[in-house]
Amino acid sequence: MTISQLFNVANLFVLPFWTLMILLPNWKVTRRIMESYLPFVLLAGAYLYLFINSITPENAQALSNPQLADIARFFANETAAATGWIHFLAMDLFVGRWIYWEGQKTGIWTIHSLALCFFAGPLGLLSHILTSWITKTFFPKSQHNEAVTVGEKAASSSGT
To answer: How many CA atoms lie within 13 A of 118 on its CB side?
Structure first.
C-alpha cells in the first residue's frame, strides 16, 4: 500500500465513527462501537508504520530540539505529512470519543462540539468545555434531568 493509499484509507476509516457519534449518539450500536479501543489501535498502528518510515537520523536530530523551520522541512516530506495527518485523525477521534461519552454520562448536548472536533479538534474540545460549563452554571436541573433520561434510555436498550 502506498503512502497516498494509506492516507486515503485512514481518512475514510474515521468517518463511520464520527457519523455515529454525531447522527446516532443514543443508538445502542453507537455506544457499543464507541466502547472499543480498536479504532485507536488501528490508527496508532498506521501512525507507527509511517513514523518509522519518516524518521531519518537528520529528522530525529532536528525533532529532538524542534525549531519551526525544522518542523516545516520535516512536514514537506509526503510520508511525514501523512504521519502528522494520521496523528490528527487519531487524536481528534479520541477527543471526540471523550466528548461523546461525557455527553452520554451527563446529558449535555454534544452534536455541535463533535462536529467542530471533527473539523478542528481543539475547537470542538473548547466548545464542549464551554457548553458543559454553561449548562452546569445556568441549567443545572435541566442537565440532571437529561442525564437521567439518557441513563434510562441506555438501561432500557441494554435490557436491564
So the answer is: 19
- Residue 23 CB: number of other CB atoms within 10 A? 11
Return the closest-CA partner of residue 140 out of 117, 113, 106: 106
User: Nearest CA to 16 among 42, 44, 45, 48?
Assistant: 42
Q: Which position has the grid cell 466548545?
A: 127
* pTM confidence score: 0.84
β strands within 42-127, DSSP E: none
| Grid cell locating 160 | 436491564
Residues 11-36 have pLDDT tens digits of 999 999 999 999 999 999 999 999 99
| Torsion of Cα atoms, 14 then 22 then 104 then 122, to 10° | 70
* CA dihedral of residues 106, 111, 18, 148 (deg, nearest 10): 20
Helix (H, G, I), strand (E, B) or coil at 120: coil
Buried b / exposed e across 129-141, counting CB within 10 Å, b at 16+?
eebbeebeeeeee
